[in-house]
Amino acid sequence: MLEWINENPGEATKRDIARAFRLKGADRVALNALLAELRDDGAVEGKGRRFSRHGALPHTGVLEIHARDADGELLARPLEWNAAEHGEAPVIRIRLPRAAKSPPGIGDRVLARIEQHGRSSATARVIKQLERRPALTLGVVTRVDDKWRIAPVDRKQGEISLNDEALGEAKAGDLVEITVTRRGRYALPSAKIENIVGSVASQRAVSAIAIHTHGFPAVFRPRAPAEAEGVKPVGMTSGEDGRALPLITIDPADARDHDDAVHARADDDPDNAGGHIVTVAIADVSAYVPAGSAMDQEALKRGNSVYFPDRVVPMLPERISNDLCSLREDQDRPALAVRMVIDAAGRKRAHSFHRIMMRSAARLAYPQAQAAIDGNGEGRAAELLNSVLKPLWDAWRAMLKARAAREPLDLDLPERRVLLKEDGSVDRVIVPPRLEAHRLIEEYMIAANVAAAEELEKARHALIYRVHDAPSLAKQESLRDFLKTLDLSLPRGPQLRPSVFNGILAAVKETDVAELVNEVVLRSQSQAEYAPDNYGHFGLNLRRYAHFTSPIRRYADLTVHRALIAALGLGDETAERDLDRLREISGLISATERRAANAERDTVDRLIAMHLAQKTGSTFTARVSGMAGAGLFVTLNETGADGFIPASTLGAEYFVHDEAMRAMIGERSGKGWRLGDTVEVRLVEAQPFAGALRFEMLSEPGPLASRSASFHKSRRSGRPAGRGGKRRKR
């Protein structure tokens, strides 16, 4: 059975296995038991209804080519691979067609169909070349002992020599792209400057580093912007006229585009007493971006828009994203709308999709809408309070009842935001308040996404789902070990529900370990992704879910729009139905989503490191957020910045990492620090362009049995306690 699962990665559902082995009746009961045993033993893992060998490669995935073997064959590795959970990735050999006109090379990324041969090897057939990574290095021009040097941004690269002729117009402190022209065995490599990105003193250079190092296609190929400029606004030629409906947009105050609008009213149907009619209208991007067009190809290559503190790398040209498809106040815009009938308990009774022309009645920011509801409204928000905002809140409060009954995963993690000054430097790092207005829009968007998935399933039309698997058994076990240190337990069994995790989070609420436990629970979760095969959304506790509400900035949503229009006969739209092609698209956009998240996180790390570089020698309050044999990782309370403390600097005795206790323990004293401890640290070194911070520990190691008692004391008293049982400052 294991061999068959390995050879049929795309068909290994329980039903497929039973058919392959001709199992019927009582034999299927034995099959269930056998699969459960194999999963508990770690021999197989289940993703939704499909089974695969533990640590198996995906059937289709994004690979990065990193080397050649002795015979000149290209070797690749999966772009996303959890080495801690699955060990070293198998060696993947790239099979190229003999007539390949422009074969990929080292450093390139490709979408490929993968065939695994045993545990340690695999072959892959390239489906599509994604990005050719330029043979350029990004670095800073420096002057050392009257000689020009390049200090590469990548810490793994050494210093590079630059002669006077190669310097050109660059000067010390410039961030530049270079090509290495000569490598010697003993001398420094030499280079020439290809492009001056800008002054290293400019904070805009930080996002430029992320764009370069993560290989973003930051500039559109000429055909796409030209195509966008040639597009004419869509008129009221087809569809429904929804301009009289006072739909409004509620977004962040600095939002660059507005692709969703909402409206609600009380339902006058006597059979739905206390119910509501909710309308969610989404910008009709498909009206301007035909499938297969140059804009569509560029959008697929990007997968999504990427948001940095100082700029956006958009998925679509600005003519589309910031103009024609942005739901601007008092301007006609085509939209795809879903009308949902909600009962008094917040449950959806019915829905219908409509292609409409809308006109936004107002553009409100979250704080504006919230202030009006709280009785402090001004301007347009105050004018719309009774007619638009109060009905929106009434419907949302009803929907909260259904959400509470569903019990989705309820993590409470602060979302830190970097605010910049006018010159681009860091002003401060804040945690924006989580308003009811945020939660209202989030709940409306979830309801619209569910309706989209249900409608396409009903029409038997293929689609790309947003899926999120339950935590793997390995991650469950790791979380279970951690919770034991707090005298908390995680039940065993493959059928965990989000409510189990919510119970754990409720137990630590208002204690000094609440943020830590939220983070550890988050790390234990699987990663959400896109797939044409539905296995539900664990975190939201939904059986079917698709992204429908942001087609300006997510390609997945654009595919769902096209599928709805084609399935419901709302226009002449071409929608992809081939499952293999949808798997390819899903693999690509899942990878670009993770790339964007990594780049955004790296940029924030570099900005904060640049901000703190001026405070070397200062002391900070921090929390122990991780540990390894080499030392402790800490997170500063004020900014959320992460840094490292080498074990060799912790004290006069030798400290060792006890993984089971989640502690760093002194061999002689038995004292130390545990995960989640609040400590005082001093900043020793900051490397801004690496986003790296090194600290020195100022707090003395404490007895390791104290935290559990402190934790339980804080639970009884209902207030947070720090190390040693003292109240933690916030």
Q: Shape, please? A: globular
Helix content: 25-40%
The whole-number mean of residue pLDDT values reads 85
**Number of distinct beta strands:** 33
How much of the residues is beta strand, in percent?
Answer: 25-35%
Class by SSE composition:
alpha+beta
**How can the largest sheet be summarized?**
5 strands, mixed, barrel
Strand order of the largest sheet: 3-4-5-7-6
Number of helices: 19
| Unreliable residue stretches | 706-730
The end-to-end distance, rounded to whole angstroms, is 55 Å
Radius of gyration: 28 Å
Describe this structure in words.
With 730 residues, the chain is α+β, with helices and mostly antiparallel strands. Helix content is 30%, strand content 27%. It has 19 helices and 33 strands. The strands form 10 sheets. Strands 3-4-5-7-6 form a 5-stranded mixed beta barrel. Strands 10-9-8-11-12 form a 5-stranded antiparallel β-sheet. Helix 13 crosses helix 17 and helix 14 runs antiparallel to helix 16. The longest helix is centred in the C-terminal third of the chain and has 34 residues. The termini are far apart. The relative contact order is 0.09. The C terminus is likely disordered.
